[in-house]
Each structure stands twice: as structure tokens, then as C-alpha cells.
Design brief:
The complex is a heterodimer.
Chain A (H helix, E strand, L loop, with lengths): L1 H6 L13 E10 L2 E11 L4 E5 L6 H8 L9 E9 L2 E2 L7 H7 E4 L10 H5 L1 H5 L8 H11 L3 H4 L12 H13 L5 E5 L7 H14 L4 E5 L3 H7 L2 E8 L2 E9 H6 L4 H9 L1
Parallel strand pairs in A: 3-8, 3-9, 6-7, 7-8
Antiparallel strand pairs in A: 1-2, 1-4, 4-5, 9-10
Helix pairs in contact in A: 6-8
Chain B lengths: L7 H4 L12 H35 L2 H4 L3 E2 L4 E2 L2 H32 L2 H16 L2 H19 L11 H25 L3 H9 L4 H30 L2 H6 L24 H5 L3 H5 L3 H29 L1 H5 L21 H14 L8 H36 L5 H5 L2 E2 L4 E2 L2 H32 L2 H16 L2 H15 L6 H26 L2 H9 L4 H12 L1 H17 L2 H4 L22 H9 L5 H38 L1
Helix pairs in contact in B: 2-13, 2-18, 2-19, 4-7, 4-9, 4-16, 5-7, 5-16, 5-27, 6-7, 6-26, 7-9, 8-9, 9-13, 13-19, 16-27, 18-21, 18-24, 19-21, 20-21, 21-24, 21-27, 22-23, 24-27, 26-27
The chains are: A alpha/beta, B mainly alpha.
Chain lengths: 269, 639
Amino acid sequence: MLKLAQDSACCSTETVSPAVLEARGLSVSIAGRPILKDVNLTIQPRQVFGIIGPSGAGKSTLIKCFNRLIELTPRAVVSGDITFNQGSILSGALHPDDLRVRIGMLFQQPVVFPKSIYQNVIFGVRRLRMVSRRALPDVAEAALREAALWEEVKDRLTDSALKLSVGQQQRLCLARTLAMQPEVILMDEPTSALDPRSTEAIEQLMLRLKERHTIVLVTHNIGQARRVCDWLACVCVNNGVGEVAETACCDQMLDNPCCQAVVDYLKRN
Amino acid sequence: MNSPAVPITDTYSVVAPDRRRWSYTLVFSVIGTAVTAGFVVGMVALFAWQTLPVLSHSGLGYVTSNNWHYRQQMFGALSMIVGTLLVSAVALCVAAPVGIGAAIITSEFLPGRARLMVKIVIELLAGIPSVVYGLVGILYLRTFVYDTFESFDLHSGDTILTAGLLLAVMILPTVMTLSDDALRAVPALQRQAARGLGLSRLSAVMHVALPQARIGVIAAVLLALGRALGEAIAVFLVVGRQDNNLPTQPFTLRPLLESGQTLASKLGGAEINIAYGDPLHWAAVVGLGLMLLVMVGTVTLLAAALTSPKSAASPPQPVENAPKHARPTKTHSTKGTSDALLTARLAQEPAVTRLPKRRKWLERFSIGSFAACTLLATGVMLAMILAIFYRGSSALSLRFFTEQIKLVGADGGIFFNIIGTLLLITTALCVCTPIAVAVALMQSVYLRERAARGLGMVLYLLNGTPSILFGLFGLVVFVKFLGWGKSWLAGGILLGLMMIPIVTVALVERMKALPKKYIEAARGLGLSKSQTVWSVIIPQSRAGLVTGSLLGLARAAGETAPIMFTATIFAGAMFPRGIVESPVLSLPYHIFILAQDSFDPRVGEKLWGTAAALLMIVMLLSLIALPVRLRIHEEAVSA
């Protein structure tokens, strides 16, 4: 499958830099029930890598594997391997907590802590003592600017974060992740709970953020995939288990899918 | 076969149902609620009224002076107030950290099944009758304290410290289960978000879950304090009961190592029976009850106010203030500088800072000590049960269960004690069930927001009311005012009243979990509210009623304080033949009396045998109910 993707016409001219994230033969089962089977993916740096596919195919499970958050799910078993900058993340050389600092995550629903806006942004940085206490306000400002939220909240940093709109809360969560300086940001349908305007803001952000970060985006919205993604993988259900049906660069996948399952999925959307 | 199809309208006629303006269900619910609220208000009023004579006699000196000599008509209760506070403080200092630590383990670290096991063990610990705690205190803890503090030259092992430690074990389940509930109520997503940022499991608990659960945890500690303040029987047996012993050396361990008296232990003593002859003395005694009620009521209502849905919906989260330089005004006014700043930071800061080794060890140490708390809590429980059955096993035989007492407890069996206890709890069940159903309906069907919260407060208060005060109330109303003397019916009614909050809360939690669609479906068929109640709500809430009743019965079976003045005697009663002057024997009172005089080894054997028998009844009732009850409760908490 991987081979097929790299051979595909539209992308053969691109120079292939070393992958940031790579899944090899990844399988996941939860409580004995297989969820994902034999997933192979290569994610290049500084691009938006989209994962599309029908509901329940295991997209969220897949994305949670990259920062090992899947291990918080009771009775989840992961086999195969994932490499991050050529090093295996499952081997134990890198502690999962350290891995999650370098691979940040944004959830479907914005999860803000019931604290002030400021405290939310610096939540992780402060707890992990990553920067000196004095630098915290600067870190907060930089992160909020990067998440395009600074202008809206600069005068009320001490207000409760729960007062923000859902769209603002999601950008606050993004700022909180950005403050940790992650290399990769995993986004699990980050706009599914948002109104169109906030969605647009987040999409703009993704395009800007990929200058410095790699983004892995799970999305239901084909339009969104077309607008922001550079490369796509489609996860489809085959015999009750999720599999990567096809990976290709964005236009190739959406306009000329080779795999029948992907064709069916796109037709339905 | 060839008979024509009968038009459906011919088979029966539809008559519009007769719609009444009011329903019997509502009346039933109102009556039950009125009885409950009336009892709470009536008890406060009765105690206040009966206390008046001593206030006019001693004035403020009643609470500020330290001289309780009833023969000289001197009533100053200061030493008892201080004793109560000291004992409770000791208990809280031990139980709060251990209970919260154990709750962190059960709610955050244990997988589902292990969690349920630990919770069942803790609930069983909560269900052990206080007289059994007292017995274990007398025979083990007293010696332990005496030996450990030998260098302090103690007069005896009956000290404030002994009582405090015993109480700590007794209130541990309260701290633990309620803190566990509070932690479980914090959404899992919050922890996941923290973990997604790279926080360790423990940091996510300490920095996200625990801060958000803190109001619930504070309420847990307050409710435990309420229980500690009001415990009479167990404290009575190990506190030494020395009047007018005010600590003279504050800020040392010494006051803790002396005998003392608490408000509740005073009320558990024989002086109560003497006091009724003298109005002033009686007023002084009831005044102790009133003080106790005020103290416990304040603490309980505070906890209820903290956790009421209103404050839970918009939690009084004092937003942490950003440091003063959080909004630098001049340097970052343009976007350019900020980007420059960001780039500068990118250059300076390594992307990942590993946690120092020291912190890893600190984490392991913390988790280890929390786990030790859990082991301690469950270990104490198992050790107690093992000790009781081990020492009581030699007395347990068929004869023991079928004969009556001989030789003041040194020989014979406990047949009539078992009969008496069963009679008392059956009566209690009959009293409690209709009232609890009525109150639960009122709470979850008829009342809305504020009124429902008010009724919730009443239930909280009733649940927190020390059991010795039920006894005092019963003594005034049933024994003296109604002239029943000691009567099984009075004991049954008092125990029934005591069970109301347990059963009601179980029912309400079940009713809350009932899917709205069932009620809508029933109403959609045209059933009235009360028809819906009897056809949908109550049948679907059966599990709550049954499990709540079983747990209530388990508690009622082990209670001594409400029945000791009102319903039960030590020897010489068989089947009651009426209501007036017809006491019964009972298991807890039997233990209570024998425990104070357990020097005869033959009595000792029977004593442990009785404790084992009581424990069997209580634990059987609890074990049947707990798995289902806990599941209902967890659903209600996480919803």
C-alpha cells in the first residue's frame, strides 16, 4: 500500500525527506476485539496529513496510537511498531509522558480546565518545569498569538476559560499544546463541535502551523481535507476491522481514488 | 372461522377516565415528607424547649464553666465540649489523609473489578456496628495505647487518644467513599487532556482531578467530622468517661493521654435515667443533646451547601490569578516583536526537558504511600472481622442460638436477643418503607430545584443526626410522654426513622437514572402523573428500594444508642405481649452491657460469639445489597 502511494503519479516528483512518524504493521485490539489491522503509514515533516474514513473505522484509535494515549483505554493491546524520528516509540526508550510533550493532541471537544485563560495556556509548561517561572507570561503570549487568540483575550487573561466560546476554547487548547513546543500535533476532528467561522479560523491556523509543525488530522469533512491536507490516508472497515485502504496525496485520493472502498466512501459524502 | 370480523369498537367502549384534581399519590407523598421534615423540626424544637430551665439556671456558664456536679445542681459542660472537639480532631487527623489517599488509589489507579472489591470492603467496614468497634477498642486498642505510651505513665488505656483512633477507623469509610465519588465526578476527558500534554498519571490526578474535586473532598471530611462528633457508643466504651477533666497542658500530647468525656458519651451513660427525676438535671442533659445537634447540624449543612447542585453547576472556582507581569504592556505591542520572541525561545529552549530523576522517585513514593493507605483501610477491616470470628468461634454452636441467657451472660445462648433484634428491624422496615417511598417521590417527581434541594438538606441533616439523639428523642416522646415505658414499638419506630435517608437516597439515585423516555412513553399513552409513578417509576426503581432497605436494615440491626433507653433490656424479656412496658432483648445492647464487664472468661467467650452473630446478620444483609447498590450509586455519581 505504501509502495503504491509513493509511486502514485502526482507526488513522485517531490523529494522524500525522512519521515517524522511511521507506522509499520500496526494492529490494535480493545478488550479482545480487533479494531485496526496491519496499518502502514509514513508521515512527512511539515505537512498536514489527513486521515479520513467512515465513522467507527478506527481513525481516532489510530491517531491515539501516535502519542500512546491509547494506553489509557482499558484492555487496549497494540502490536506492530511506530517510529518517531526513526526511533521506536513503543520500545520504551522514550517515556510515554515525554513522547506526549513532543506529540501534542487536540480533541474533538475542547477540554479546558476550570481555571483562568492564562493558567490554561501555561498548564503543561508550568507543571513540567519546562521554562523558568519568569518566562511563563512570554510563553503564554507567544502561544496565544500562534493560536490566533491573543487579540481576543489579551485583556482578560485572568477570566475563567469556561467563559470563552467553544471555538475560542478549542484555540485555547491549541495554544496550550503549542506552548509545549511539540513537533507533531495530532488533531482528532478538532472542528466537529465548532461553528463554521471557528472552523475556518482553525483551518487557517493549520495551514500556518505546518510551517513549523507536522499535523496529523482526523476529519469527517471531505471539504476540509481538500482545503488543508497535503497527504491523505483513508481508513475503511474490512471484515469488521479497520484498515488503511489507500494513502495518496490529497488531490490524487479525492479525485482519482484507486481503491473501491474509498470510492464508495467518497460517494457517500 | 367464518364469523365476520368484529369491529373493535364493539368489544369494549372507551370511557374518558375520570380525572381528579388531586391524587392519592400526591397526598401520600406529602404525608411522608411531612412526617420526615416534622420529625427533624420537632426534634430540634423539643430539645430547645426542654433545655430552657438550665439556661435560666446556669446562663452562659452552662457552656463556659467546667463543673458538672449534678448533686450540687452545678452544670458546666465545658470539659465535654472540649473532649468532643479533641476526640474528633484526633480522628480527623488520622482519617482524612488516609481516606483521601486511599480514595485516590481506588478512583484513579484501580481497574474496575479490583475497585469494586475495595469499595465493597470499605462499605462493609462502614457497616460494622459501633458497639462492635467499641468492643474491639476495649480489648485491643486500649491495651495498645497503654503499652505504646507507657513512658507517659498513663492511668489507664481509656484515653481521648484511644477514642480518637477508634473513631478514625469508624469515619475512614465516610472520607474514603465520598472522596472517591468526588474524584469520579471529574470528567475523564479532563485527565485525558492533561495526559495528552505529557503530564504523568499522578500529576494529572494531583493537578487536574483533585483540584476539581476539592469541594467534594472537603464535604467528605466535614461529613466524617459530623459522624465523629456524634458517635456515642464506641467512644463511651473507651474514652474513660471522666467528668470535669479539662486539659491543663495544651500544646503537648498530655491532654490526649488522659481520660475524658464527650457530649455523646455522656448521653450514653446511666446518668440519663437518673436525670429524668429532676427537671433541672434533665434540662442540662437534653442541653448536651442540643449542643451536639447544633454542632453536627452546622457541619452537615455546611457540607450539604458545598455540594448542592447549585454550587456544583457553577462551581465557586476561584480563578487563579496570573502574575502581575502576565500582560506586559510595552514590549509585545506588535506582532513582529512577539514572533521575534518566539523564535528566540525556540533557539534557547530544548524541545523536551526530561523530568529529573528526583521527581520520578517522588511520584513512586507518593503512589506507594497512597497504596499503603488503601491497604491499611482494607487490612483493618479484614483484621477486625478475622479477630471477631476467631475469638467468637468457640461460642458458636446450635445451643448458643436456641437457648436463652443464663448466669448474667456467662452461660446459655442468645435466642431471645436474636428474636428481639429481628422484631426491631422488621418494625423499622415497616415504618421506613412507606415514608421513604413517599419522600423519594416528593424529591424526584413532585419537587423542582430549590424545594428539592431543601428536602435534600433535610435528608442530609437526618442522615447526620447522631443516633444517640434518636434515643434521647424517643426517651422523651415514647417512654415518658406517651407513657409506653420501654417498648419494642418505640425502638422500631426510631430505627425506622433513622433508616429513612439511606433508603430514600438509594431510591432517588435509581429514579434519577431512569431514562426519560419511559416516563414520556407512559405520559404519551395518557397516563396521569400518579399512574406513571405506580406503573413506571416505582417498578423500575425496585432495585434501589431493595438494596437501600437492606443496607438500612444492616445499620438498624447494629445500632445500640436509639434503643438502649427506649426498647431494650439486658435480661428477662421474651416475646412482647403488647406495646406498653414490653421491652425486648437485642444483640447490640447485649454486647454493650457485657463489654463493660468482660472479666469473666466465660462471659468473654459469649461476648465474642454474640459479636460474631451480630456481624453475620449485618454483613449478610450488606453483602446481598452492595454490588447492585454500588453500581446504581456509581451511575448516579458519574451522570
